[in-house]
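FIELD: query
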Amino acid sequence: MSVPLAVGDTEPVSRWRVAWRYLALGFTHILPYGLDHVLFVLGIYLLSNKPRSVLLQVTAFTAAHSITLGLSMYGVLRVPASIVEPLIAVSIAYVAIENLFLSELKPWRVGLVFGFGLLHGMGFAGVLTGLGLPPGEFVTALLTFNIGVEMGQLAVIGAAFLLVGWHCSERIWWRSRVVIPASTLIACAAIYWTVERVMG
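FIELD: result
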């Protein structure tokens, strides 16, 4: 589960300082504090770690969460965290479970990832609302936080590529030794979070 972060002082600061601060906050919201988002990104990667498959899904996810993050921060969209957070956990479980039955990217998967990205964007907005945005640099803080989130997600994917490499998906043991056990663990964690967030 994502951990709230403290912004620190509230006195006026320069635009560059605001940009750097919120860039760092966006990144650390993924690494190391956003385990749920990390597992979602890994679930995307595990379906098929071919660059095209990963790129299509990550692009859809990025576009979607950027939309709802912006709409939420401008007050256009308001959904309680008590609804958003359990649904984020459900999205992680769904992606992981689907990995157990699919071995290649299907058209509907990209659409689902887009839809799940809308949920995650509202989750990011909840965190950013808790942090607060400097009135004079609202757009700067919003944009750089979002960029920081993207950098965190790309770092997760980059680490996955370095650890197993895209060539491994062609190996006969890829699904049995990597995709199935990893997706099962992700699904179990997400189901636990779903119950915890609904009950909590």
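FIELD: remark
Confidence is low (pLDDT under 50) at residues 3-10.
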